[in-house]
Amino acid sequence: MAFGFFKKKKKEENKTPHYDPNNIRITDIRAGFFLEYDAKTWEVTEEYEYDWGDNEFSYSFLLRSASEEIYLSLENEGELEIALTNKIRLIKLGEDLDDQIAENKRPPKTITYEGVKYYRDNESPGYYRNTATTKREESIEMITWDYYDDDEEKTISIEQFGEREFEAYIGHYVEEYEFSNILPSSEPPIAL
Prior knowledge:
Order of helices and strands: EEEEEHEEEEEE
Strand order of the largest sheet: 2-3-4-5-10-9-8-7
Protein name: DUF4178 domain-containing protein
Number of helices: 1
Number of domains: 1
Domain DUF4178: 31-175
Organism: Bernardetia litoralis (strain ATCC 23117 / DSM 6794 / NBRC 15988 / NCIMB 1366 / Fx l1 / Sio-4)
Protein backbone atom coordinates (compact mmCIF):
# COMPACT_ATOMS: atom_id res chain seq x y z
CA MET A 1 0.00 0.00 0.00
CA ALA A 2 1.13 3.44 -0.65
CA PHE A 3 1.62 6.33 1.57
CA GLY A 4 -0.71 9.25 2.09
CA PHE A 5 1.80 12.03 1.57
CA PHE A 6 -0.13 14.11 -0.88
CA LYS A 7 -3.64 15.20 -0.31
CA LYS A 8 -4.70 17.83 -2.80
CA LYS A 9 -5.15 16.27 -6.22
CA LYS A 10 -8.76 16.87 -7.22
CA LYS A 11 -10.96 13.95 -8.14
CA GLU A 12 -11.20 13.32 -11.84
CA GLU A 13 -14.75 12.78 -12.99
CA ASN A 14 -13.83 10.85 -16.13
CA LYS A 15 -11.12 8.17 -16.21
CA THR A 16 -10.77 8.15 -20.00
CA PRO A 17 -7.31 9.17 -21.17
CA HIS A 18 -6.85 12.81 -20.21
CA TYR A 19 -3.33 13.34 -21.50
CA ASP A 20 -1.82 14.67 -24.70
CA PRO A 21 -0.40 11.51 -26.36
CA ASN A 22 2.43 13.62 -27.78
CA ASN A 23 3.38 15.01 -24.37
CA ILE A 24 2.67 12.42 -21.65
CA ARG A 25 3.79 13.68 -18.24
CA ILE A 26 4.38 11.89 -14.95
CA THR A 27 1.07 13.33 -13.73
CA ASP A 28 -0.72 11.32 -16.45
CA ILE A 29 0.38 7.84 -15.34
CA ARG A 30 -2.05 5.11 -14.41
CA ALA A 31 -1.75 1.36 -13.80
CA GLY A 32 -0.38 -0.31 -16.92
CA PHE A 33 1.92 2.56 -17.95
CA PHE A 34 5.67 2.13 -18.39
CA LEU A 35 8.38 4.69 -17.67
CA GLU A 36 12.11 5.05 -17.25
CA TYR A 37 13.72 6.25 -14.04
CA ASP A 38 17.26 5.80 -12.72
CA ALA A 39 18.38 3.89 -15.85
CA LYS A 40 15.65 1.27 -15.35
CA THR A 41 12.31 0.55 -16.98
CA TRP A 42 9.40 0.48 -14.54
CA GLU A 43 5.84 -0.74 -14.95
CA VAL A 44 3.07 1.00 -13.04
CA THR A 45 1.43 -2.11 -11.61
CA GLU A 46 -1.01 -0.69 -9.05
CA GLU A 47 -2.81 2.58 -8.40
CA TYR A 48 -4.06 3.69 -4.99
CA GLU A 49 -6.60 6.38 -4.30
CA TYR A 50 -6.77 8.44 -1.13
CA ASP A 51 -9.99 10.34 -0.42
CA TRP A 52 -9.29 13.20 1.99
CA GLY A 53 -12.86 14.56 2.02
CA ASP A 54 -14.16 17.82 0.53
CA ASN A 55 -13.65 16.33 -2.95
CA GLU A 56 -9.86 16.13 -2.43
CA PHE A 57 -8.14 13.01 -3.75
CA SER A 58 -4.56 11.89 -4.23
CA TYR A 59 -3.06 8.91 -5.99
CA SER A 60 0.04 6.86 -5.48
CA PHE A 61 1.45 4.12 -7.65
CA LEU A 62 3.42 0.90 -7.21
CA LEU A 63 6.25 0.77 -9.75
CA ARG A 64 8.10 -2.47 -10.51
CA SER A 65 11.35 -2.97 -12.39
CA ALA A 66 13.04 -6.28 -13.11
CA SER A 67 14.65 -6.30 -9.66
CA GLU A 68 12.78 -3.97 -7.28
CA GLU A 69 9.64 -2.04 -6.47
CA ILE A 70 9.03 1.52 -5.29
CA TYR A 71 6.04 3.72 -4.62
CA LEU A 72 5.50 7.03 -6.39
CA SER A 73 3.26 9.84 -5.18
CA LEU A 74 2.48 13.19 -6.76
CA GLU A 75 1.31 16.50 -5.33
CA ASN A 76 0.50 19.56 -7.35
CA GLU A 77 -0.50 22.59 -5.33
CA GLY A 78 0.86 25.17 -7.71
CA GLU A 79 4.19 23.32 -7.94
CA LEU A 80 4.60 19.65 -8.74
CA GLU A 81 6.23 17.57 -5.98
CA ILE A 82 7.15 13.95 -6.64
CA ALA A 83 8.17 11.47 -3.93
CA LEU A 84 9.55 7.97 -4.28
CA THR A 85 9.37 5.71 -1.24
CA ASN A 86 10.03 2.19 -0.06
CA LYS A 87 7.94 0.31 2.45
CA ILE A 88 9.71 -0.42 5.74
CA ARG A 89 8.69 -2.22 8.92
CA LEU A 90 7.28 0.14 11.54
CA ILE A 91 9.57 -1.33 14.20
CA LYS A 92 12.56 0.12 12.32
CA LEU A 93 11.26 3.58 13.27
CA GLY A 94 11.03 2.70 16.96
CA GLU A 95 10.64 -0.50 18.93
CA ASP A 96 7.52 0.64 20.78
CA LEU A 97 6.14 2.97 18.12
CA ASP A 98 2.93 0.99 17.66
CA ASP A 99 2.27 1.16 21.42
CA GLN A 100 3.04 4.90 21.49
CA ILE A 101 0.57 5.54 18.67
CA ALA A 102 -2.11 3.42 20.35
CA GLU A 103 -1.60 5.20 23.67
CA ASN A 104 -1.22 8.78 22.39
CA LYS A 105 -3.44 8.51 19.29
CA ARG A 106 -0.49 9.73 17.16
CA PRO A 107 3.23 9.05 16.72
CA PRO A 108 5.93 11.23 18.33
CA LYS A 109 6.76 14.70 17.01
CA THR A 110 10.20 13.56 15.83
CA ILE A 111 11.66 10.28 14.58
CA THR A 112 15.33 9.54 13.98
CA TYR A 113 16.03 6.94 11.33
CA GLU A 114 19.52 6.00 10.07
CA GLY A 115 20.97 9.12 11.71
CA VAL A 116 18.49 11.54 10.11
CA LYS A 117 15.96 13.41 12.25
CA TYR A 118 12.43 13.74 10.82
CA TYR A 119 9.76 16.13 12.06
CA ARG A 120 6.03 15.40 12.03
CA ASP A 121 4.38 17.90 9.73
CA ASN A 122 0.75 16.86 9.46
CA GLU A 123 -1.94 14.37 10.32
CA SER A 124 -4.53 13.48 7.69
CA PRO A 125 -7.55 11.22 8.14
CA GLY A 126 -9.09 9.79 4.99
CA TYR A 127 -10.08 6.71 3.04
CA TYR A 128 -7.83 4.40 1.01
CA ARG A 129 -8.42 1.93 -1.81
CA ASN A 130 -6.64 -0.01 -4.54
CA THR A 131 -8.43 1.25 -7.67
CA ALA A 132 -8.29 -2.13 -9.42
CA THR A 133 -9.74 -4.25 -6.62
CA THR A 134 -11.88 -1.99 -4.43
CA LYS A 135 -14.94 0.09 -5.26
CA ARG A 136 -14.92 3.66 -3.98
CA GLU A 137 -17.75 2.95 -1.51
CA GLU A 138 -15.68 0.08 -0.04
CA SER A 139 -12.65 2.28 0.75
CA ILE A 140 -10.90 1.66 4.07
CA GLU A 141 -10.74 4.36 6.74
CA MET A 142 -7.20 5.36 7.66
CA ILE A 143 -5.01 8.13 9.00
CA THR A 144 -1.54 9.16 7.88
CA TRP A 145 1.25 11.18 9.48
CA ASP A 146 3.94 12.79 7.34
CA TYR A 147 7.46 13.61 8.48
CA TYR A 148 10.22 15.59 6.75
CA ASP A 149 13.93 16.07 7.40
CA ASP A 150 15.53 19.50 7.95
CA ASP A 151 15.98 20.08 4.22
CA GLU A 152 12.51 18.72 3.36
CA GLU A 153 14.15 16.43 0.81
CA LYS A 154 13.55 13.16 2.68
CA THR A 155 10.25 11.95 4.04
CA ILE A 156 8.65 9.30 6.23
CA SER A 157 4.98 8.44 6.22
CA ILE A 158 3.13 6.32 8.78
CA GLU A 159 -0.34 5.01 7.97
CA GLN A 160 -2.77 3.49 10.43
CA PHE A 161 -5.71 1.26 9.49
CA GLY A 162 -7.97 0.24 12.36
CA GLU A 163 -6.65 0.07 15.91
CA ARG A 164 -3.23 -1.58 15.41
CA GLU A 165 -2.50 -2.07 11.72
CA PHE A 166 0.35 0.17 10.53
CA GLU A 167 2.45 0.69 7.43
CA ALA A 168 5.52 2.90 7.11
CA TYR A 169 7.32 4.34 4.10
CA ILE A 170 10.61 6.20 3.73
CA GLY A 171 11.70 8.12 0.70
CA HIS A 172 12.86 11.27 -0.98
CA TYR A 173 11.74 13.86 -3.47
CA VAL A 174 12.71 13.76 -7.15
CA GLU A 175 12.19 16.02 -10.16
CA GLU A 176 9.88 15.38 -13.10
CA TYR A 177 12.76 15.53 -15.61
CA GLU A 178 14.20 12.36 -13.98
CA PHE A 179 11.42 10.33 -15.62
CA SER A 180 11.41 9.63 -19.35
CA ASN A 181 9.81 7.48 -22.04
CA ILE A 182 6.42 7.43 -20.33
CA LEU A 183 4.19 5.10 -22.32
CA PRO A 184 0.51 4.33 -21.73
CA SER A 185 -0.94 0.87 -21.39
CA SER A 186 -2.36 -0.75 -24.49
CA GLU A 187 -5.39 -1.65 -22.36
CA PRO A 188 -8.31 0.78 -22.06
CA PRO A 189 -8.56 2.58 -18.69
CA ILE A 190 -10.62 0.99 -15.93
CA ALA A 191 -13.93 2.73 -15.29
CA LEU A 192 -14.11 3.69 -11.64
